[in-house]
Design brief:
The chain has helices at residues 2-6, 12-27, 33-44, 60-76. The protein has 77 residues and is mostly helical. It has one domain. The longest helix is centred in the last third of the chain and has 17 residues, at 60-76. The chain is elongated.
Length: 77
């Protein structure tokens, strides 16, 4: 979005892609702190970070959904 804006291009397509990616990640449960940190760790290629209470950690089901969501987003690009 930012690169398109700076280049003077139409930003509607990047915004649409971003919104679609966010929808996919939210369906995977990335609207919470623990799953969000897990998704970021996967994208950065680092180890998983664990949360301090009262934040909940990512579940195995969420991990599977997040991995699938990130794969789907990579295919969209």
């Amino acid at each position: 979005m930012f690169a398109a804006k700076r280049a003077g291009k139409d930003i509607n397509e990047p915004i649409t892609k971003f919104e679609a990616a966010m929808k996919i990640l939210r369906e995977g449960g990335v609207d919470e702190y623990g799953p969000m940190k897990y998704a970021l760790a996967l994208q950065m290629g680092t180890r998983q970070f664990y949360q301090r209470p009262p934040n909940s950690d990512v579940t195995d089901e969420q991990k599977t959904k997040i991995k699938q969501a990130l794969d789907q987003i990579k295919q969209m690009a």
